[in-house]
Structure formats: C-alpha cells, structure tokens
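Continuing from the previous page of notes. For each protein in this section, the sequence appears first, followed by its structure tokens. Read the first protein now.
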Amino acid sequence: MMDRRVPAEILDMLPLAHASWRPVLKAGLEALAEAHPTYLDGLVKDDYLPTNGRLFAAFAQPLESVRYVLVGEGPYPRQESATGFCFMDGAVQSLWSDTGLSKQVNRATSLRNFMKMLLVASGELKKGNTSGEAVAQVAAKVRAAPSSYTQTLAELQDNLTRHGFLLLNAALVFRPHVPPLKEAKAWQPFLQTVLDALADRAEKQGEQAPTLVLWGKIAEQLKALPSNERFPKAVAEHPYNLSFIDNPAMQVLFGPMSLLHKA
C-alpha cells in the first residue's frame, strides 16, 4: 500500500539514507500521507529545496549511532546551501579567512553564531566579546600551520557525525511560498515515526534515548508530539539570534565535544 500512497519520486530518494533507516523513513512517509493525503503529491509537482535527491541525506549514519537529534527549522533558502543537513551550508568550504570567519560563514547567520558559540564554549573567545576583531585574532592562530583546528565545514560536519548527531530539520523542505511553520506541521507525523524508532531502539537496548536539541520556536513544536516525553532535551533560541552565542545550556552541551579541533 505504501508504494501506491507515497509518490515514487519520494521513495526513489531513500537510498541516500543508511539501510537501517529506510524502513523507518518509509513508515514515516506513510504516516505523513495518511495525515495529509495531498501533501506529497503536491510536493513532487512543486519546486523545493534541497535538490538533487537529498531529501533524506541527514539519515546517512546508522540509526544505532545516533546520540543527539539536532533539529532546526528548515533548509537554507538557497539551492547551493540546502544540503539536507540542518545548519550545514553547502556553499561553505573554508570556515576561516585572514579577517576572521570566512565570507561564506558570515553569510550563513545561523552557522556564524554557532561557530561563535563554539569559540566561547572552548575558551577561544570571551563571553560578550565576539566582535570581528576578536574573531580575527582567533583565526590567525587557527590558520597557522601546522594546525589542529577544524578548517572546513566538511570537517565540522564529520565531527558532529562522530559524536552521533542526526542533523535534522523540523521541515525537510523549503518552499518560498509556504510558511515554514505550516511546512513543519506537515512533517510532524514523519518525525514522530523517526523519534519513536530512536526511542524504541534505546529502550530495547536498555539505554537512554538520544538527546533532542531543539533550536528555535518551530523546532520546539516537536515538544507537542506524543514521543516528546521519551527524550531528554536541550532547548535554545534559533542560532540566527545573537543571544544564542552566550546561551549557557548550549555551551555546556557542546563545550566538551571540541568540535573545532580535528578528530
């Protein structure tokens, strides 16, 4: 029944996900189709991001490897930037420049503030002093060869994956004519299925469920899902807010991970 209800164009994207995720994602798509019968048919007839079949790219690592579920709002609204992973801007290569953070990082406001938060958490920057001049001083040290620091976004993403992050968005797609909150609500049955799979696996193994890291009001809508109580949570404002840089809960969470150092 599922193959008849979920458009083939959507199912054809599942191979990008790890094999352990594919039955879960199919079940999630079926739940979405049942709750919103016209949504997926309308989606495949529309233009949306991410492109190139990357709808389920975030599920590349095995289900059993997930220790954190980092949830943002939706894909970046630029084709080159939307990768299928939350906050990982595909237009960014180098993280640094001779004047501080790279031009591409500074353009991706959420990523820029995430980087600054990591620098504060690691002690490279002082709280309340994250100006361009302060970051430039750090960049000079970070880029000096030989360097043990993370140099590229790909390395940063690898570090997040190594720590077990599922980099997910509350809405898996972006369409300029659809309000982000409406888009995210449509995906809630799918995300409910994903979260249940993670919680069920942890329960079966006698482990704590992964931590939900919810960034922004749209991501916080997941707290209304039935599976919400099965997860520990770390909640913060969306990183496009400057206040995110000094968020103590995020500094405590990410500080020990040393994401800005090469593995």
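Done with the first. The second protein uses the same format. Note its length before scrolling.
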Amino acid sequence: MSAGNKTSRCTIRLQRADFQVEADFVIPKKGVLGIFGHSGSGKTTLLRCLAGLEQAVQGRIEINGETWLDETRALSVQQRNVGYVFQEGRLFPHLSVAKNLAYGARRCLACKDEDESMEREHLLELLNIAHLLERYPFQLSGGEKQRVAIARALLKKPRMLLLDEPLASLDEQRKQEILPYLEKLHEELNIPMLYVSHNLTEMLRLCDYMLVMDQGRQVFNGRMHDALVSAESPLARVESAVAVLEGSVSKQEKNFELSTVHTTNGNRFQVPGLMAIGKRVRLIMFASDVSVTRQRATDTSILNIIEGRVSAVLDKKHGRVLLQIDCSGDVLLSLISEKSFQTLQLSPGTAVFIQLKAVVTRGNE
C-alpha cells in the first residue's frame, strides 16, 4: 500500500449547536500523525470528519492529490475508503475471525485474488493472529480483538488508517501486548496513519507528528519532537515534560547488556538492553530524569553526561522549573527545583552539563 507523492492537507470546520471543531493541518505521507487532547477536545469528531461520518462539514480535505471535500463536492464514506478502527474493535460477534477478515477483504474493490491472499498471509504474520482464525470474538482477549480489527481494516486496502483510541478499553497488560504490533505497523505501512489518544505515553512510542486539540480547536501541529519541547506547544509544561530523539545503534556491550545509540547530531547515549547494530530507535527522555550541573561530574554512576546550553525557561510551577537545553542540536528538557535553578544561577545562554539517569527506547529487540 503506497501513499504516493502528493500532498494531503485538511482544513476542517464543523459547527454544532453546542460545539465547534476547527483544524488546519497536513497529513504526512509516511509516519503516524497523533491527534492528542483531553476528553471532549474534538479528537474523535475530527477523525469522523475525515472519514465522512459527519454531516455539514465545511472546508477542504485533499488526500494524496484527490479532493474529498470542498465547496462543490463531498465524497461518501465508501468513496473515501478509509480503514477505521474503533475503541472496541466492533467485530461481528456471529462470525469467526476468519470470516471477519474475509468481510474486510470483500470490501476491497481493487483487489485481485492472489494479491488478497498475499496481503492476508502477511497481516496474519505481522499481527500474530493466524492461530485465532477459528475462534469467535467472545473467545478473544481485548488485545486480540483489536489486532483482528486492524487486520480487517487493512484488508480493504484503505487510503488511510484511522485508529480511534484503540487501546482505551484495554488494561495495562493488554496495552503492553498490543503496542509492539502497532510499532510494526508504523514501520511497514505506506499509507497515512492517524492515531487518536489522550494518553501521551502511547503517543511517545507510536507517533512522528502531533496535532493537539483543545476545546474543539487545533492549538499545535508539528513534529513530535517540537510538540514536546517548543515554547509554543501546550505540552512543553511541567506536568507533561518529556522529549524524544531519534538515533541508531552504534555499539553493543554484551558484558553489561548495554547498547550505544548515536543521534543524527552526534550525541551518544548508553541505554539498557542489547539491540542490533544499525537499528533505528527512538529515545524517550523524561525531564524529571535529567539533572543539570555547571561543571562536568566525575566519579558518578550516571553514564550519560552531555554538554549543552540552556536555551529557554519554558515553565515554572509548584516550586519546579522546566528548562529547554540545546545539546549541539538535540533539544532536551530538564525539570529541576526552583531552589536548584536559583542556586545554580541558570538563565538562557548558561553552559551546563546534563546528566541523564534513564532512557526508555522504542525499537528494542
């Protein structure tokens, strides 16, 4: 499934009696666009507007060069051909997994039999559901239902995959079971993928771009990294202070079960676990795990010490200060006490060393 090379841009306005949704954003050709916000912020409504499930939508929706909506036309749900995965999966309870998947394949008008068979086998392996084919939905766990629902949505060869809080109904154990499969989809899909959630942890693992909604309005749209560290973003605050960096594995230390990851800007981080040399990974760094010193520490247990410079003070709240720190192009966040901030006499431009206590990675093998 290919996304092509043309632009996908959406300007959406929907006015209801008690609610209004407004957004203007670009959908990336490759990667996952996360739509983030608190309950009631308009995330699901925005997804429904894209899918053609809402009436009286105004604006313009252009997907891969094709106009889905403007002042003269509005393509139907069938014409848009999106794959939509809901919170509950919505499998047909009277059909086996195999027949649920067959229903999705039958909705692919452009599929040939041999293509359908190859696609089906690939998805069965990718989502690990081949052993479930003879079961019925009531015999599946929540995570298994969602994996089957995703496969069914993809078998119709959609132009876009929309995931509406697919993990919201799962407990923490089931969430951890399904997240690796969603990460595999992230790596393999060549169609736009939009992921709605109010859970920032899910977004950190899966999304490359972020559209942040608040009370029906778009308040930020950009790359995931910028959404987390930019002064203009509502996420760069004390309550949700975290940064992500992309890098590749350059070294293994098997005796210590450590891997070394180099970022594109040349910084080196040592992370727990052994990963394949050359593997692309995402480093997730919580600001509360990033301490700051004016001098490089010696005789310390901290493995990751990086030189940088304070570039901004993003937030001050409840006795804590959120710093934006530029480390040769890699922008990180540090959350420290206001007392430490004053004691160290920090301000934009101050040269510092960051000490990173822990790193969470996406892409572990």
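What the second structure shows: The domain at 242-362 is CATH 2.40.50.100 (OB fold (Dihydrolipoamide Acetyltransferase, E2P)). The CA atoms of residues 321 and 336 lie 5 Å apart. We return to this in next week's lecture.
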